[in-house]
Structures are given as C-alpha cells and as structure tokens.
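Predict the holo structure. Ligand: 6-O-phosphono-beta-D-glucopyranose.
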Amino acid sequence: HFMQKEIYEQPVVVAQTLTSYLRPLEEQVALPDMDFDLKAIERVAIVACGTASYVGMIGKYWFERFARVPVEVDVASEFRYREAPLRKGDLAIFISQSGETADTLAALRYAKGEGVHTLSVVNVPTSTIARESETVLQTLAGPEIGVASTKAFTCQLMVLASLAVAAGKARGELSDEDETSLVHGLVEIPRLMAAALTSEPQIEKLARDISKSKDVLYLGRGTSYPLALEGALKLKEISYIHAEGYAAGELKHGPIALIDENMPVVVIAPFDRVFEKTVSNMQEVAARGGKIILMTDAKGAA
Ligand code: BG6
C-alpha cells in the first residue's frame, strides 16, 4: 500500500525537511528570509483542513509556549465563512499537503483581503496556495499518494516546530541554550522515528485486536491531544471503525460513560509535565474495565 510505504519514508523525509530549516551542527534554526518580522507579530491565525489542521493545533501549543504569541486555529471550512477579524500586520499560516484544498485556498484569499501577512506550509511548491502566499515554507515529504496524510503530517510538524523556535528566538523568549536544546531534540527525531517503526510486529498484533471493536477512544493532553484527534481520524478513515479523540481531562465530562471492557482506549502520554495527570485519567478508564493501549516513551513505561 502507498500509505504503508509513505509511513516508512518518514525518517528520511523528516530529516530532509529539518535540514532545510535547521543548522544541525550549530544546533540553530535557519529559516529563509521572510517578508515580515517575526518580532512584530502580535497574533497568529492557523488555518487548514483535516490532518493538517491538527498540525495547526500542535503548532499553537509550540508558538504560545516558545514565542508567547497568542494563536487561533481554525478549520478552513469554518474560517472562510466566519469573517474573523484579522489585524493588518498579523500573521496567518495555511497548512496543506496538496496546496490545492478549496477551503484552505479560499481562507488564504480572505486573509489576504484583510491585509495580514500570509505564510503557507505546503508540500507542492507549484500549487495555487504556494503561489498566492507571501511566504512559502515547503515540506520535503516528496509526493504523497495515499489520500490519508502520513509523511506530510510529520514533515508539517517539523516546519511548525522550526518556525515556533525561530519566533521564540526572534522575540527574545528563548535563550541560545533553549534553542540549542530544542534543535537538538528535533535533530534526534528521524533516528527515533526509525526506532519506533521497528515496533510494527507489536502494532500489527494490536491492530488485529482493535479491528474487532466497534468504537475506539483516543486520549491525550497538551500536544498529545491533537495527536489523539489525528489518531481517531486515521482509524475512522482507514478502517471504518468509529473513533473519537478527546483531551484526557475531558474524559470525566461525558465520554467516560461509554467505557467498558469492549472499548479500547488509546492513551498517548509521553513522560512530560502532564504525564501524571494523564495517568490518573488512565486509572479512571481501568476502573471501568476499559482496555488501555498506552503509547509512551521509555521513561513513561518504566
Ligand atoms: C483530506 C485528507 O481529505 O484532506 C487529509 O484525507 C488531509 O489527510 C486533508 O489532511 C487536507 O488536505 P491538504 O492537501 O490540504 O493537506
């Protein structure tokens, strides 16, 4: 399947994308010259569809944390009709693999009409969205044939991460040491991705179990929340199994009622500053007999 082939291309294409926006040896970000000053931006709007909109949601966490700039994220089909007030001089970012998605393009044209700076993150540099944007940051994912985005998603994340670190640096919110440590983390990603892909036999076994389920819940906090939404979207689109993604803290406000021994719950929880919080949500799932599939790192598994 093309999708499987594209999943396995990720370590290489993610490394290629990172190489365009970082200086790995110096452990610094290195964005191309842009027609606007990242220091002067007071608000960011991120607009995209489907999987690309989840990249936008993750980007919001990074921008707000590293650069302390408020970010709004919208799906393009809503943004284009809701006449959002945008201020001249603000930045609107459009994320699209194809660069041709009609709603995202219409949203870009609306934003241009409002006089904001426009930046697109696209995989196809000759696309309409790329041509009509003031600044283009290309993902180097190569052609993505599978309809459900995979390698473009992870490459888009690399561009957003590099941009958020650059914004943090330009605005004086990140020190040289912060930059070095964040870039070091990014440079490590291709190797870690390749290692994660060696889990395929275990994943295949889990997938066989999940394929018998009618509904699957995905939970996560922080940047793992949009990842939970993306996981649920992928399962729906590819397996036709009903799935929902939730912010783990929202579990108690409704979805917990659905949990029983027939409901697999995929919990995405790396060992980060909200890990313990997610573990307490996992305990609530376990108390109701839910089947937990924990996706974590070595520290979280310990
Ligand atoms: C959807 C695809 O139809 O379009 C998603 O299934 C994709 O995977 C979305 O993210 C948006 O497409 P694009 O090309 O604008 O990123």
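The longest helix spans residues 176-197. The chain has eleven helices and eleven strands.
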